[in-house]
Amino acid sequence: MSQTPDSAVHPAPSDAVRAHIAAHRSAFLDDLAAWLRIPSVSAQPERSGDVRRSADWLSEKLTRTGFTTVEVWETDGAPAVFAEWPSGLPDAPTVLVYGHHDVQPAAREDGWHTEPFEPTVIDGRMYGRGAADDKGQVLFHTLGVQAHLAATGRTAPAVNLKLLVEGEEESGSPHFRALVEQHADRLAADLAIVSDTGMWSETTPTVCTGMRGVADCEIDFYGPDQDIHSGSFGGAVPNPATVAGRIVAALHDDTERVAIPGFYDGVTELSEAERALIAELPFDEAAWLTTAKSHGTLGEAGHSTLERVWARPTAEVNGIGGGYQGPGGKTIVPASAHLKLSFRLVAGQDPAHIETAVRGWLAGLVPAGIRYEIAFGAPTRPCLTPLDHPALKAVAGAMSRAFDGAKVRYTREGGSGPAADLQDVLGAPVLFLGISVPSDGWHAPNEKIELDLLMKGVETTAYLWSDLPAALRADAPGA
Amino acid sequence: MSQTPDSAVHPAPSDAVRAHIAAHRSAFLDDLAAWLRIPSVSAQPERSGDVRRSADWLSEKLTRTGFTTVEVWETDGAPAVFAEWPSGLPDAPTVLVYGHHDVQPAAREDGWHTEPFEPTVIDGRMYGRGAADDKGQVLFHTLGVQAHLAATGRTAPAVNLKLLVEGEEESGSPHFRALVEQHADRLAADLAIVSDTGMWSETTPTVCTGMRGVADCEIDFYGPDQDIHSGSFGGAVPNPATVAGRIVAALHDDTERVAIPGFYDGVTELSEAERALIAELPFDEAAWLTTAKSHGTLGEAGHSTLERVWARPTAEVNGIGGGYQGPGGKTIVPASAHLKLSFRLVAGQDPAHIETAVRGWLAGLVPAGIRYEIAFGAPTRPCLTPLDHPALKAVAGAMSRAFDGAKVRYTREGGSGPAADLQDVLGAPVLFLGISVPSDGWHAPNEKIELDLLMKGVETTAYLWSDLPAALRADAPGA
Ligand SMILES: [Zn+2]
Ligand SMILES: [Zn+2]
């Protein structure tokens, strides 16, 4: 095979990819273990040195992998790592891979059977904090691009490959949007691939196609200037805690649909085809409820549980408080009450429009004699890749090859994340490529990664970088 | 005048009553000041010795006044004082006067212009903690019965006079009901007179005819076993904070009437005559709102503010809590939420029936997947004396004489108090005789009593003990 770049992109043969992976699996896992030993817990200030060590370790590893540019990017918080490896091909698409190198806190006494920062392989699984979320899933890209090169005989990937690995995801990515905005030109891409999610199960490979957005607000209701006696005044003055309750009750109608006028404006409804695909998934509601630690389902009429958490917007009460909350009773009309609400948003919903809708709805419900204040946090937009997007088809195809021809299905993620910032700032569609499974224990004791699945991730990317240029070209206008 | 008891009860002439009061006013006020110097704050454990000193001081004063039996009654908390002065007349009615000798906490730095426990007379007012609530209003009964004797020439009152002065009213009377039950035979009376309320204003003498009762409950709602992620699960599982809000909203209908089925069962409605009497009162709603520290009125449709707080039952949210209440936001479906509700009750409502109604109503509203617990506290019954009760007419008549023939009007008290225990245990109607005015500053800095009004209280009782036997006899069956 030629060792010089050429302008034709050849497919990566499976046997060559698999041979490369097999040859390098052991060294790769040693690297992963080394990285997992660095307790890069972004939420613990005393670990900030470890977060930096983690960034430095990753930089060294990416350089060793072959990335031509590797930089540690400072933020007002923990550092991120950026790496770039140009294709050399004039018409190569540019792909930006996103992940994070910080991890959740972990301590042996939380219920770990092994030391959380001493990775341990047992029965084909590597246990350790960050194994799945997200170091394992960042790292498979290093062996993946090398397998891609080995199998295609190229010296640079067939796509312009960029990596952005942030260091504060587990702390809510407080500086991520600013970072992306600051480096928007360096990060420019045709496509973003987020490797920080998972698949349906070990036996059902899936690609996530979108995340919900979120808008949140805090509402403070003020009634009497101080708590007043409910005997002397109760029944004749408005009670802010009662008003808060009424606002909560007014969030939904009798069908559990959000009752705020305008809330559903622009919502991208699920097509019948998408609903059918979701319905085909082997969903075990009882098992899901166990995971949800909940004792019943309740949601928007006319939608299944999966549709509700993946594709439907919500209004949720995150917190409520007012009046006396100590032991026993206190016969007062409280001076104030407070609500924390959040709204999950789906594709087509505009957070600014939601804010306007909520403000207008609220203004019409608060009675005279109650003053209120409402403040919104910074929203996260929803993101969604259409099922017929060529990149999505390429990802699913590559994954199917890695999974021996298994049918790849589509999921969504109910949560919200920094992926939306990439979509917003870069104007690029976002795909989600993850091989973690629900049993991996994200944010829980005994987090692990299935090593065979990890290699499927490696393999998927090895194929993907080969397949993507043609897939995107085929779909280009005029193609 | 005869100095021996006789069996005919003569009216107490005004000039004789007033002459006696004038002659003893100064010594009486010295006594009141001495009592006010004892900081009998029942809510402060370090003052328990002072509360006992206060009981002892009162015992000595009552003995000096002429009461034939004076006892300090122990409770599981602070001591009460009981005193008795039999009439000697075979058919004399028995009257039990209720008051309390404990006071609210007070400290100079709370905004007092004088030392709270160093009573100070300025411009005809005595300032000091307890001046109006309730030492002044207990003590006027001592000079009152002496004026009654002096003006009628009797050596014992024309009624069998009993006094019960508790020491924990400002701490919620936790042992009062047990005390009344324990001594029910000693306390037996045809009538209870509570001197622990006030009048409408300096220029509008009034008699309070009833208090609302109160039933309270705490409701805990449990959803997920722990706070769960609102992105992963929100929109598909029931949220206990949302349920708490819906329960709050369901408390009332659109007319602010309590919407719990059966809640109004048995309610003694205001007659048109009573409504007219209330409407005649010189009510300044703006001033009332200032007192209520509220910024608007809201209550049951079809009723005025005074009707709402005096004569209508209510459902009030005293406290609500659930989920995240700290700074910022947290996107969770909370594990639990909690409500503290209280219901003011009016005559005709039975607390046990209310509890049953609330439990049934709640059970029908909580969705599957939410577990709840509800617990009721000990209720306080409402009490109400009919406007045509002869004792009420006697009290109003005596008060009118003391106020130079002014028309005495009727009020009610929206709060709830130990008066209901007297009514329940003793089976006696309860009347309220108080001469305090709204500006007296109960529970606030610079509490005071108007000395001229205090003397009107003395004078009212001097007449009342003379008038009551005939008034009750006239109304007795067969009279
Ligand atoms: Zn992650
Ligand atoms: Zn009092």
From TrEMBL, chains A, B:
Its EC number is 3.5.1.14. It holds the Pfam family M20_dimer. Residues 210-363 form the Peptidase M20 dimerisation domain. It is an enzyme of class 3 (hydrolase). One of its GO terms (biological process) is proteolysis. Gene3D superfamilies: 3.30.70.360, Zn peptidases. InterPro entries: Cyt/Met_Dipeptidase, Peptidase_M20, Peptidase_M20_dimer. It comes from the Bacteria. SUPFAM superfamilies: Zn-dependent exopeptidases. The keyword Protease applies. Keywords: Hydrolase, Metal-binding, Protease. One of its GO terms (molecular function) is aminoacylase activity. This is N-acyl-L-amino acid amidohydrolase.
